[in-house]
Amino acid sequence: MNTKKLTDPVKIFWAQIAATLRALISGPPAEDPNAPVGQTPAPVTRKVMAVLFNPVVPSEAGRKLSQVMGWNNPDDLLLGHIADLKEASHGYANYTVAERLETGAFPAKADGFVYTADQYVQATRANAGFHQPDAVDYQRLLSEFHVLDKVRSGAIDEVWLFAFPYAGFYESIMGGPGAFFCNAPPLGGTAAAGRRFVIMGYNYGRGAGEMLESVGHRAEFSLARVFRSAQGAANLWERFTRYDKTHPGQAELGTVHYAPNSQTDYDWGNKTKAKSRAPLWLNFPKLEGEPTLVDAAEWGGGEIRAHHLWWLGHMPHITGSAGDIAYNWWKYIVDPQTVR
Fold first, then answer.
1. I need a labelling partner for 257 at 20 to 30 A (CA). Which of 14, 175, 219, 308 fits?
2. Is the pLDDT at 28 greater than 60, yes or no?
3. For residues 162 and 204, is the Cβ–Cβ distance under 8 A?
């Protein structure tokens, strides 16, 4: 992952606080509905509460779980992910850590079960004995970290949870009034937040590419909802997601799991040439033109992070609109409140 190492939590906290204060003082410029089509949208700042579950393991000389298992440093993933989202959105999405919390506790499951550190390490090394059902108790997390109050006050816009395999988190789940399915059923009992918000669940046993995949699924559900009433050629989301296996000779960008030439799930390294109109999307809204032959070399040769940056980077990201749907699809991805 191409990210500068910054692992001191105190430095991370104060650097992000400074960025947040700058954003609050200046305020993100509002998008101008009368701006000419094709301009760069004003960047937005989204405030994140980052919660890092990284328990100390008593039987391993008090080292943290991520170190014991040889997994990624969650702070490195956090900063790298912020940079990746800014890159993929062409500078539009600027995430800042409004609050960073690190806890040595294991999150409680929906049935009340809580691992001990040694118990969890033993199950992981044996790849057996994990507690079922796996689902986490989201309501307990909301209460413990005062999430609804912080969303309502504007202190944060969303929550990023960093944990380990079998933590029980969904990749993304939405709460707040009018919450809709976002890779998980809407989170009930959250209307007090006053607006929609997303909780992302990231696994530091995996990497930057998997984090982008979670965002990709969030994008898929958000944009499918945006275009749910659009019919025929007006449904540009349906067109964007076409791939050769389902639409022979008519591939566009495909989906998070299927590149334009994929034959199976996660087949991002396929070297077979297929016709695709993917390059045309960088000229949006001018999508007329003939398809070109593409293969995995176009999106990184099969590397997960490279494919997802390529896929997300082709999302329309300019000013203008067609009817009620903006030409900047990233606004719907980062701010669920904008999704009608």
1. 175
2. no
3. yes
Q: Are strands 197-203 and 325-328 parallel, antiparallel or unpaired?
A: unpaired
How does pLDDT run across 137-167, given as a tens digit for each residue? 999 999 999 999 999 999 999 999 999 999 9
Task: Note the pTM of the prediction, 2 decimals.
Answer: 0.90
DSSP secondary structure of 55-93: -EEGGGTTEEHHHHTT---HHHHHHHHHHHHHHHTTT-E
- The CA dihedral of 132, 133, 138, 141, to the nearest 10 degrees, is -20
For residue 320, give both structure tokens: 């203008």
**Token representation of residue 73:** 């440093």
Place of tokens 């791939």: 243
Q: What's the gap between Cα 82 and its chain centre? A: 10
Round to the nearest angstrom and report the end-to-end CA distance of the chain.
Answer: 35
> In the chain, which ranges are E strands?
44-53, 56-57, 63-64, 93-103, 158-163, 172-175, 197-203, 274-276, 292-294, 317-322, 325-328
Strands 172-175 and 197-203 turn out to be: antiparallel
Q: pLDDT per residue over 48-91, tens digit each?
A: 999 999 999 999 999 999 999 999 999 999 999 999 999 999 99
Report how far residue 114's alpha carbon sits from residue 100's, in angstroms, rounded to the nearest whole number: 22
Helix (H, G, I), strand (E, B) or coil at 267: coil
Tokens, residue 185: 């059923």
d(CA 283, CA 273) in angstroms, rounded, equals 22
Q: What is the mean pLDDT of the chain?
A: 92
